[in-house]
Write a structure and sequence with these properties.
The chain has about 290 residues and is an alpha/beta fold. The protein folds into 2 domains: about 160 residues, 3-Layer(aba) Sandwich (Rossmann fold); about 70 residues. Strands 6-7-8-3-9-10 form a 6-stranded mixed sheet, sandwiched between helices. Strands 2-1-4-5 form a 4-stranded antiparallel sheet, with helices on one face. Helix 5 packs parallel to helix 6. The longest helix has 15 residues. It is globular, with a radius of gyration of 19 Å. The two termini are about 35 Å apart.
Length: about 290
């Protein structure tokens, strides 16, 4: 892993502080080690991906950044604020999150779940208030901002439609718009294409590419187990396995057959076409994947 510089002083310019600075993070529950001495530093304005198999700790790590899960030990700094020593509600308004979970528990404030009866525009407006439903009176400026973002993500023709009537892929893009209403400094995308067909997936990825192209683009943390979902603009990949980061570097350094085979426990091949990575598993590998017990 990369070496960590000393903690920045409070007088240091905002641009010099990292988006995320985590040191020796441990999360243990009921005797089970979920995160094991995790350390990383994510720079502002960069696109970073956490890549790893299901159950390796990726989502737990994201929840720790949002203050939704408490660390057993270690320190977590987000946007210059140390969790446990700051107003987490205020900090969350500087962070956007898209998580496709259908479980509302713990994710209300982050943009994962909204009232399906709202119009698409109203669903995006809830991002201003960090609520599931729309309980506050919104301003004309907030309505205009929501419509502009829906247009940016290709949903300008869906503004008046009930959110629950959107396709799954359209809902996901609307949630990206919702996450952007406050112009966040950090955008966390936790498996944003889960459950989508190929067209829905590519539309979500194209939307993320649009966000990356904005002049005020936030630091983006993409969490996935599919190398195909990584943008050609990816600056850094952190490979996670068993609750630890086992490798960190540029995509060229990390997305290799050897490293991915180690992380996923399956012999894979990787090729890069037009800036995107594509993973293959040959049928011969199936013999080793399912063995009689």
């Amino acid at each position: 892993m990369d070496e960590h510089p000393n903690t920045k002083s409070i007088e240091e310019p905002l641009a010099a502080t990292p988006a995320v600075n985590v040191r020796d993070l441990v999360v243990q529950r009921q005797g089970t080690m979920i995160l094991d001495r995790v350390s990383c530093r994510l720079e502002r304005g960069r696109y970073t991906a956490i890549l790893g198999p299901n159950g390796c700790g990726k989502t737990t790590f994201a929840r720790c950044l949002l203050g939704q899960m408490f660390a057993t030990s270690g320190s977590v700094q987000v946007l210059g604020e140390t969790l446990g020593q700051t107003d987490i509600r205020r900090l969350r308004r500087r962070i956007g999150i898209v998580n496709p979970t259908t479980d509302a528990g713990g994710y209300h404030t982050t943009g994962a779940v909204v009232d399906a009866g709202l119009s698409t525009t109203e669903a995006v407006i809830t991002g201003f208030f960090a609520t599931v439903g729309l309980y506050d009176t919104y301003t004309e400026a907030q309505h205009r901002r929501a419509c502009e973002l829906l247009s940016m993500v290709g949903l300008g023709h869906r503004t008046g439609l009930r959110f629950g009537l959107l396709s799954t892929g359209e809902q996901r893009r609307a949630l990206i718009a919702r996450a952007l209403v406050h112009v966040p400094e950090l955008l966390i995308l936790d498996e944003p294409t889960a459950g989508l067909d190929i067209t829905g997936r590519e539309q979500v990825l194209a939307t993320i590419e649009q966000v990356l192209g904005q002049p005020d683009a936030p630091a983006i943390l993409m969490i996935t187990h599919h190398v195909e979902e990584l943008s050609p603009k990816t600056d850094r990949v952190m490979l996670m396995q068993g609750g630890r980061f086992i490798a960190s570097g540029t995509p060229e350094q990390i997305i290799t057959p050897e490293k991915l085979s180690e992380a996923f426990g399956c012999k894979v091949f990787v090729e890069r076409i037009h800036g995107r990575y594509w993973l293959q598993v040959l049928p011969e590998a199936w013999v080793d994947l399912v063995k009689p017990v």
